[in-house]
Design goal:
Length: 445
């Protein structure tokens, strides 16, 4: 073979250059400097992104600034806790730190847990007992990469209120009366004293927002339901017969594709779709609210700079709120992101995926400047796609968010939990560029 051909062949067979490698078949006691385990299984890639992050911190502090690169092999990386990057993980201008997919492969950073050990019950349902359900419950379930429906009533469409609580005569004139935001009168037997009533969610639909509630008290005689947490608008303010639906009671489990978790007994029940068989499906439940945090102190002049994420997939983030919190605001502004950052500057998210999230996909909050989100697919979302900036105004330069770009992204299939989420939300943030994005299949806007 000619020398030139031999040289080309060696290039084609060479491993992609990186400072560190991570792989599902790696080991955190190895050096992380090989893309695959060696034949003796004594060295190879790391097993977890967190170990690679820590190792990179150590070498970056010991060497002069230069570009650094970590490559992740294809496969699933279960995150035991949120993966946090801080100022010490930053690159510098002209010398970024890049976390990228190994060429041709798809690494998935997952905040989920796999559910196995299903039993087929006599009624056709599947069940499995999760001993830690009381401490580690969840609100979403994904089967073979698709979101499944938390048991709800009705299965499609809505129920309608009969009116406000009896003590509220005119919700439009009693906006300052706290009781106007803490319940309603219902029709017939739309609600009843189910054994798991304290776990039921009431989801109310307004004008441009929704609200989600836990039940404090139910009076079947007066047909009144009273909430733990308040609404934003008085109930029945916009229409006396206001729309709502119910979620999360065992009694609602009546349609293929629905599921229910009894947190007291730990029993998870699923009604399979036609063709699904136990042991032949991949079932995942989220256990983390945020998968990745870019965390620093912009008010104190500390930032996360020049990080690049390329070709990575972030999946399976849950949603979580205190029961007393008001869960009503236009654009679901109370929701965070599966990937979240504060004080992030000159970061790049290129060709990444964020999917199966309980709230927003990505939120670059206060102090985020000069970041680029490009060619990303953000989908199957509890709320919306991307948030830029904070809700409140600030005149502190380090806390202002500006000069960010969202370009050529595909943002779709959102609003599954908080229907008032939006495709791209811009708060108190200026000079951003939102260009050539395809945004569709979102409940609100």
């Amino acid at each position: 073979m000619p020398v030139a051909a031999l040289f080309l062949a060696s290039l084609l067979n060479a491993e992609p250059a990186a400072d560190l490698y991570v792989a599902p078949n790696g080991n955190d006691t190895w050096t992380g400097k090989l893309a695959a385990p060696n034949p003796a299984a004594t060295d190879g890639p790391f097993a977890t992104p967190a170990r690679a992050r820590d190792a990179l911190r150590a070498v970056m502090t010991a060497e002069k600034p230069r570009p650094w690169r970590v490559l992740l092999r294809g496969g699933v990386y279960p995150l035991g806790e949120t993966l946090v990057f801080g100022p010490e993980d930053s690159g510098r201008e002209g010398n970024p730190v890049t976390w990228a997919a190994y060429p041709g492969e798809k690494p998935i950073l997952s905040g989920g847990r796999s559910i196995t050990g299903w039993r087929k019950e006599a009624d056709g349902s599947w069940s499995v007992t999760l001993p830690d359900a009381a401490q580690h419950g969840f609100n979403q379930l994904f089967v073979n990469g698709a979101r499944r429906t938390r048991a709800r009533q009705p299965n499609t469409g809505y129920l309608r209120t009969a009116g406000p609580l009896p003590e509220i005569k005119d919700p439009q004139k009693e906006r300052d009366n706290t009781a106007s935001r803490l319940g309603f009168t219902y029709r017939g037997d739309d609600l009843t004293t189910w054994p798991d009533l304290d776990e039921v969610n009431v989801v109310l639909y307004y004008d441009w927002s929704t609200s989600r509630h836990w039940i404090r008290a139910l009076d079947p005689g007066a047909r009144t339901v009273r909430f733990v947490n308040p609404t934003g608008w008085p109930v029945c303010f916009w229409e006396r017969e206001q729309r709502f639906h119910l979620e999360n009671a065992r009694a609602f489990l009546d349609s293929p594709g629905e599921w229910y978790l009894d947190r007291k007994s730990g029993v998870l029940t699923y009604l399979p779709l036609p063709g699904e068989e136990p042991g032949k499906v991949d079932v995942v439940a989220p256990r983390l609210r945020r998968l990745v945090e870019l965390r620093c102190d912009p008010a104190g002049g500390k930032f996360v700079d020049n990080l690049r994420f390329e070709g990575l997939s972030f999946q399976h983030a849950g949603w979580q709120f205190e029961r007393t919190q008001q869960l009503e605001a236009q654009a679901a502004a109370y929701c965070t992101g599966a990937v979240w950052g504060q004080g992030v500057r000159n970061a790049r998210f290129i060709g990444c995926e964020i999917a199966h999230a309980g709230e927003y996909g990505l939120w670059l909050e206060s102090g985020c400047q000069g970041n680029v989100i490009r060619h990303c697919e953000i989908h199957d979302l509890g709320a919306g796609g991307v948030r830029l900036g904070a809700e409140g105004f600030t005149d502190q330069p380090n806390l202002i968010s500006r000069y960010n770009q969202v370009d050529n992204c595909f943002i779709h299939d959102a609003g599954h939990v908080f229907p008032d989420g939006v495709g791209i939300w811009v708060g108190h943030s200026s000079d951003n560029q939102l260009t050539h994005n395809d945004i569709c299949d979102i409940v609100y806007s």
